[in-house]
Amino acid sequence: MISVEGLKVEFGIKPLFDDASFVINDRDRIALVGKNGAGKSTMLKILCGMQKPTAGNISVPSDTRIGYLPQVMILQDDTTVREEAQKAFADVTRLKDRLDKMNQELAERTDYESESYLQLIEKYTTEHERYMMMGAENYEAEIERTLTGLGFDRTDFERPTSEFSGGWRMRIELAKILLQKPDVLLLDEPTNHLDIESIQWLEQFLAQSSSAVVLVSHDRAFINNVSNRTLEISCGKVIDYKVKYNEYVVLRKERREQQLRAYENQQKEVADMKAFIERFRYQATKAVQVQQKIKQLEKIVPIEIDDVDNSAMHLKFPPCLRSGDYPIICDDVRKDYGAHTVFDHVTLTIKRGEKVAFVGKNGEGKSTLVKCIMGEIPYTGELKVGHNIQIGYFAQNQAQLLDENLTVHQTIDYVAKGEIRLKINDILGAFMFGGEESDKKVKVLSGGERSRLAMIRLLLEPVNLLILDEPTNHLDMPSKDVLKEAIKAFDGTAIIVSHDREFLDGLVSKVYEFGGGKVREHLGGIYDFLRAKKISDLNQLGASKPASGKADASAAKAASGSASASKAAATGNLEPANIPQEPLKKALSYEERKAVMKKISKAEKAVKESEAKIEKLEAKLKELDELLMAPENAANMAMVNEYTDVKCELDAEVERWEAASETLESLQQQ
Prior knowledge:
Blueprint: E1 2-10, E2 15-24, E3 29-33, H1 40-47, E4 55-59, E5 66-69, H2 81-86, H3 90-108, H4 115-133, H5 139-149, H6 166-179, E6 184-188, H7 196-208, E7 212-216, H8 220-226, E8 229-234, E9 237-241, H9 245-280, H10 287-299, E10 328-337, E11 340-350, E12 355-360, H11 366-374, E13 380-385, E14 391-394, H12 408-413, H13 424-430, H14 447-460, E15 465-469, H15 477-488, E16 493-497, H16 501-504, E17 510-515, E18 518-523, H17 526-536, H18 554-560, H19 563-569, H20 590-628, H21 637-668
Parallel strand pairs: 3-7, 3-8, 5-6, 6-7, 12-16, 12-17, 14-15, 15-16
Antiparallel strand pairs: 1-2, 1-4, 8-9, 10-11, 10-13, 17-18
Helix pairs in contact: 3-4, 5-6, 9-10, 18-20, 19-21, 20-21
């Protein structure tokens, strides 16, 4: 279907890859793998024609349709979800318009015996058959199936796309690409914006699709379930393994062992040649042999191997204080944003040493409950953090708190204690900061690199309660293995918010499911939970959710960005919110009540206006954050300055919101 021959790409002195040749056949399910920076995304861009190679040929038949989903793309804001999805059927719509015109012409003409009339009938018949073969009569049903499969409710279909967060709008783009039914699907990290349910639906869709698929993903379970072939980009070469991902891992290990043996033999041969040259360099009788050895040495092509054997890397958290028996206790906890209830009646107990997962569709309150535990936002009900708890918290904005003037190595060196300092280079290598990368300043790192660096810092701090919010989004598979192994060996308690099944498998012993405003406890691992849900409660996780939930819980995020505001309005540094009632106050006169109500109305308006501004600023901040995560934007100072300005504006607005909220609260208590 697509033939690649002698492909070469150069961005500097050393080629990204060279002499790459392979063929993409019908119904191939190809996992494109390699460490970060190997050129996976570049390869996809070349395959879809967005980027030209330095050398080589790519042959694509003229009738082959290619669908490409990049990691970051410019999204439209002027349509509804349904209208945006309908763009996938633009060809069908145009064909239907032509059929309608031909049908109208056939009805109006009376020259039934003319040759042109007969030609029109024949053309109409051919086009109508083509229209029916395209499944045009059912395209609305296909749109609904695809959108609901990717997590949208039917009530969302008529909402403007501008109301959704970047992650949900990427789902719309994915839906459009899938609905187009291209011959070749090129997907770059499609699971980054999907929850577990949507990932499973996408797996089934790809398994039943007739399209060839080339897939880049760090979700091991996803690519293993989808792939039947693996292309690895390593050391500037593309190696083709005709097996699915799990089998590739075994073959790759064997191949690397052979590579290491060949490298060692070559190094011994080079050392022997150099020793011979040095020994006999000045002996006239050996001049010919010395020259031969020098020529042989010059002709040797060095065998390349990966810089770091990540599979051999192990990491443990430093020793920590023993915490109380119950690090987290929630009793009837509830969180509202205006009229929207994120969750209520949340009652749960997490014991010391437990590893638990928070799962559910995006916008159902997983991160919100985490922020309640952290004391960043107010709530109602009783939430207790146990005795002697030291919390280590990893969130998406954690990367923004790093000192930009330090190097990668300095950032880690300042927090590492004891013997672990001797292994800093090994740790950095395991997280893709090996060699010269460790000397980079934080300010030139991409968003993904900063997230990885923040994760390393967390791994080195002495804590006994880990709270990780989507920790694997920017980690490749070897790095995820390092992190997973460290958490499994961790003596303390861990709460992990993640949609990565492979990462959670064997790591957690309890799953808390968020959905429909409730939090349900499931004993067992992640696959026990999924099996039980499939058998007895298939639609539970997909319960209908409020419309406001998908806009990335914008109001929630507005509050989450205001740690200072939250602490003032929260429940007293995570103590139970049982406020004793004050003695009855003197009854107000009618005029006094009227004046108070007028003030309350004015304060409510100020709070709502402030919340609306915060929501817009948070959306803008998230959009800039996603753009800054791309390596090509890491040094874009205009974008960085814009991010800083928006952040300052947001902080100022949060302070206004806090003041208005406190004013409203005091008025309501009168």
